[in-house]
Amino acid sequence: MYNLEQELRENSYPGRGIVIGRSADGAKAVTAYFIMGRSSNSRNRIFVEEGEGIRTQAFDPSKMEDPSLIIYAPVRVLGNKTIVTNGDQTDTIYEGMDRQMTFEQSLRSREFEPDAPNYTPRISGIMHIEKGGYNYAMSILKSNDGDPSSCLRYTFAYENPAAGQGRFLHTYDGDGSPLPSFSGEPTPVDLGELTCDIDTFTARIWDALNEDNKVSLFTRFINIADGTYETRIVNKNQ
To answer: Can you give the pTM of this predicted structure?
Structure first.
């Protein structure tokens, strides 16, 4: 288990990141999604609630340049499934699973983002709560070491995850030009004391993100017993 706050503090630009796991008391499914930005266009965003999920939105619409890769719904809910992603593949997963496709099958029609030379990975997660049980899966679609002719597809599934443990998946291994894509499996992280309550979880993740580059953070705790949930949103732009 790695220390999540330390992982965040030691990487000035992890890009966009998803954390999924289980609270220390075992009673809640927990998730966090954050976005960062280096350009003025990327930084000109906020998270807003939309139904049971959230959407990105321009903080100052007059300064919006290209909305294609930065305006999307990172979180949507389909019945007892919560989808969290870093792009409009949220909708692809939602629509595919609504047609009885699996999480992995739904993503077969998608690749990494067309933002040469970075070819930013598409990262996705899905949390499934049913009859007091909980499992989740994560996916990354990435170029083959910067080669856009080859897409590498990885899916990681976690059944009955242990209390106080989670996985952290993000788009970049660090800053650079081009930005280096995330490598390896989702990082196992200790969620123990972080998940004593949602406000602590939210505040400590937000504080650990690079001050210059962080833009917005979403967190949610879902009660595994009945599916009720609490949500927090933090936006740097107020």
So the answer is: 0.96
Give 238's contacts (C-beta < 8 A, 6+ positions apart).
none
Mean of pLDDT values over 93-106: 97
Rounded Cα–Cα distance for residues 64 and 134 (Å): 39
List helix spans (H) across the chain.
Answer: 4-9, 40-43, 89-98, 103-106, 198-208
Give the Cβ contact number of residue 26 at 10 Å: 13
Parallel/antiparallel/unpaired status of strands 187-190 and 2-3: parallel
Q: Where are the domains of the chain?
A: 2-235
Residue 25 DSSP class: T
* Cα 104 from Cα 43, distance rounded (Å): 31
Least Cα distance to 81 among 25, 38, 124 occurs for: 124
The radius of gyration of the chain from alpha carbons, rounded to an integer in Å, stands at: 16
**Which residues are paired to 197 by β-bridges?**
none
pLDDT in tens, 208-236: 999 999 999 999 999 999 999 999 999 99
pLDDT digits (tens, 9 = 90+) for 132-141: 999 999 999 9
Tokens of 97: 């699973």
- The owner of tokens 């996916």 is 139
Domain 2-235, CATH: 3.60.20.20
In contact, 89 and 122? CB cutoff 8 Å: yes
What's the one-letter identity of residue 148? P
